Amino acid sequence: MNARSRQRGRSGALMLLVVFAIAGVLGALAIKQVLGPVASSKGRGGDPDAAEATVQSAVTQGNAAPGSALERARGLEDALKRQQEDLDKRIDNAQTGAAKQ
Predict the structure, then answer these.
(1) How many C-beta neighbours within 10 Å does residue 20 have?
(2) CA distance 14 to 20
Protein backbone atom coordinates (compact mmCIF):
# COMPACT_ATOMS: atom_id res chain seq x y z
CA MET A 1 0.00 0.00 0.00
CA ASN A 2 2.88 2.33 0.79
CA ALA A 3 4.40 1.92 -2.68
CA ARG A 4 1.03 2.65 -4.23
CA SER A 5 0.68 5.97 -2.39
CA ARG A 6 4.16 6.98 -3.55
CA GLN A 7 3.10 6.17 -7.10
CA ARG A 8 0.12 8.50 -6.77
CA GLY A 9 2.33 11.27 -5.45
CA ARG A 10 4.74 10.96 -8.34
CA SER A 11 1.99 10.89 -10.94
CA GLY A 12 0.35 13.91 -9.34
CA ALA A 13 3.60 15.84 -9.43
CA LEU A 14 4.12 14.84 -13.04
CA MET A 15 0.63 16.02 -13.95
CA LEU A 16 1.25 19.36 -12.24
CA LEU A 17 4.46 19.74 -14.18
CA VAL A 18 2.62 19.10 -17.46
CA VAL A 19 -0.12 21.58 -16.53
CA PHE A 20 2.42 24.28 -15.67
CA ALA A 21 4.29 23.68 -18.93
CA ILE A 22 1.09 24.04 -20.96
CA ALA A 23 0.11 27.18 -19.04
CA GLY A 24 3.55 28.67 -19.66
CA VAL A 25 3.38 28.04 -23.40
CA LEU A 26 -0.14 29.46 -23.65
CA GLY A 27 0.88 32.50 -21.61
CA ALA A 28 3.87 33.17 -23.84
CA LEU A 29 1.70 32.89 -26.95
CA ALA A 30 -0.86 35.28 -25.47
CA ILE A 31 1.82 37.83 -24.62
CA LYS A 32 3.25 37.64 -28.12
CA GLN A 33 -0.21 38.20 -29.61
CA VAL A 34 -0.92 41.18 -27.36
CA LEU A 35 2.43 42.90 -27.79
CA GLY A 36 2.84 42.00 -31.46
CA PRO A 37 6.16 42.56 -33.19
CA VAL A 38 7.73 44.32 -30.21
CA ALA A 39 7.94 41.08 -28.22
CA SER A 40 8.83 38.74 -31.06
CA SER A 41 11.97 36.66 -30.69
CA LYS A 42 13.15 37.64 -34.17
CA GLY A 43 14.28 40.98 -32.81
CA ARG A 44 16.88 39.39 -30.55
CA GLY A 45 20.40 39.73 -31.71
CA GLY A 46 19.30 41.88 -34.62
CA ASP A 47 19.71 45.52 -35.40
CA PRO A 48 19.03 47.65 -32.29
CA ASP A 49 17.93 50.57 -34.47
CA ALA A 50 15.22 48.42 -36.05
CA ALA A 51 13.96 47.38 -32.62
CA GLU A 52 13.91 51.01 -31.50
CA ALA A 53 12.00 51.99 -34.64
CA THR A 54 9.42 49.29 -33.92
CA VAL A 55 8.92 50.59 -30.39
CA GLN A 56 8.70 54.19 -31.60
CA SER A 57 6.09 53.27 -34.20
CA ALA A 58 4.04 51.45 -31.56
CA VAL A 59 4.15 54.52 -29.32
CA THR A 60 3.25 57.00 -32.07
CA GLN A 61 0.27 54.94 -33.24
CA GLY A 62 -1.73 56.21 -30.31
CA ASN A 63 -1.05 53.53 -27.75
CA ALA A 64 0.13 56.13 -25.25
CA ALA A 65 -2.31 58.84 -24.20
CA PRO A 66 -0.98 62.40 -24.02
CA GLY A 67 -0.86 64.25 -20.73
CA SER A 68 -0.53 63.21 -17.18
CA ALA A 69 -2.54 60.50 -15.50
CA LEU A 70 -4.59 63.10 -13.66
CA GLU A 71 -5.61 64.81 -16.90
CA ARG A 72 -6.59 61.47 -18.44
CA ALA A 73 -8.66 60.63 -15.36
CA ARG A 74 -10.46 63.98 -15.53
CA GLY A 75 -11.17 63.46 -19.21
CA LEU A 76 -12.57 60.03 -18.49
CA GLU A 77 -14.72 61.43 -15.70
CA ASP A 78 -16.13 64.10 -18.01
CA ALA A 79 -16.90 61.53 -20.69
CA LEU A 80 -18.69 59.31 -18.17
CA LYS A 81 -20.74 62.26 -16.92
CA ARG A 82 -21.80 63.13 -20.48
CA GLN A 83 -22.77 59.52 -21.14
CA GLN A 84 -24.80 59.42 -17.93
CA GLU A 85 -26.60 62.64 -18.87
CA ASP A 86 -27.41 61.27 -22.32
CA LEU A 87 -28.70 58.05 -20.80
CA ASP A 88 -30.85 59.97 -18.32
CA LYS A 89 -32.36 62.00 -21.18
CA ARG A 90 -33.14 58.85 -23.17
CA ILE A 91 -34.78 57.23 -20.15
CA ASP A 92 -36.86 60.35 -19.48
CA ASN A 93 -37.91 60.51 -23.14
CA ALA A 94 -38.86 56.84 -23.13
CA GLN A 95 -40.88 57.22 -19.91
CA THR A 96 -42.75 60.31 -21.12
CA GLY A 97 -43.43 58.63 -24.47
CA ALA A 98 -44.81 55.55 -22.72
CA ALA A 99 -46.93 57.71 -20.39
CA LYS A 100 -48.55 59.51 -23.33
CA GLN A 101 -49.77 56.25 -24.83
Answers:
(1) 10
(2) 10
State the Cα–Cα distance between residues 89 and 82, nearest whole angstrom. Answer: 11
* DSSP character at residue 41: G
Complete DSSP assignment for 64-81? SPSS-HHHHHHHHHHHHH
How far is residue 56 from each of residues 32, 37, 63, 71, measured CA to CA in Å? 18, 12, 11, 23
Q: Residue-wise pLDDT tens for the chain (101 aa)?
A: 566 666 678 888 899 999 999 999 999 998 988 887 654 555 455 566 666 666 566 555 554 555 688 888 888 899 999 999 999 999 988 888 776 66
Please state, in angstroms and rounded to a whole number, the distance separating the CA atoms of residues 39 and 23.
18
